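On clarity, I found the account of how folds are encoded harder to follow than it need be. What matters is that the chain and its backbone geometry are given together, residue for residue. The format is easy to grasp once an entry is in front of the reader. For illustration, here is how one protein appears when written out as sequence plus structure tokens.
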Amino acid sequence: VLRREGVGALVVDADLVEVAEASGYEGHVVVADGDPDSNSGSHRSIDDVRAMGSSRPLLPSKPIAPVLLTSGTTGTPKGARRAGRPAGLSSALGVLERIPYQAGDIAVIPTPLFHAWGLVQLTIAAATASTAVLVRRFDVGATLDAVEAERATVLAVVPVMLQRILAADTHDRDLSSLRIVACSGSALPAAVATAWMDRFGDNLYNLYGSTEVGQATLATPEDLRAAPGTAGRVIPGTVVEVVDESGDPVASGETGLIVVGSDGQFTEYTGGGTKDRIRGLMSSGDVGYFDADGRLFVTGRADDMIVSGGENVFALEVEEVLLAHDDVVDVMVVGVADDEFGQRLAAFVVRGPGGSIDADGIRSRVATRLARHKVPRDVTFVDELPRNATGKLLRSSRP
């Protein structure tokens, strides 16, 4: 990534200096905390850099083109550039219209700040004169300690963080100060949304979008109660359609490709290329449908579809069914090669403490709720699933 982006200076925490050096990076390294403690003359502390500054504001030598990295679930993270303009104001205001942030909030942010969702939460805290409490690396205990100690009103999470908090013993935890639990980053399972609100109250807001397409839809607690598993309604200032293979909108209830139009979208990948567009709307790469009330449901990634015996299966649908079982705290369903069917379904399952469900129980649960071709033939129980730093499943890295 450093080579591709042509980075001239790198700002790192002290404990990441060795990572920067091991990468072969030869530019300037600014250490944001602690002593640079290096023999390299190119290493400086943040205080050294401040001391070199001028009292006069500096003007950029060229138009600012902020670059955010994608999650990198299918390989090296891509650089998504928004050339010459900041993130869209209209779609940002649409989010603030739906989530009741207030001036003076106290926001606990354990989500990575290099990811769009963590950066958005930090920006909102700054814009609303709120306090941002950063958790260096997500840990259930450290995160809940911060919420309790600071009497936090906002908690920013990705879905797997909710799953891990729910799987922990929280009976003696007081999270009553939380007014907003803002979630994004990957699909929020229906069972997780319901379990969270049943335990901690109706404070959950789920945003659907991506680094490339920006914000698309948002589900309020009312939406999640009425239709668990929904990605919510279209955010004001944004256009979202579900289209068929010809690019024409489909009727509510029909599944198709989700395309988005907003002023918060990226321009291009720094390595070249962009997302496909249909009538000016950018492809999200996801498939889904709108219900009769205008709520969006995401059924999976277009490129994650499993074809078994000529039948199409989206892993997310099977995972939702299994996560609703009390013994299952995490699950990943993938397609594996099969001589007879082309592909067959394999499920990797993490049981909760004291969980006793076995492979036959996994298959039976799916068989009684979904079509026969969606039942996993292979079931493997594991301690943990492979996820990246933003909590997304790495389906190509089997446990």
Q: What stands out?
A: The CA atoms of residues 152 and 203 lie 13 Å apart.
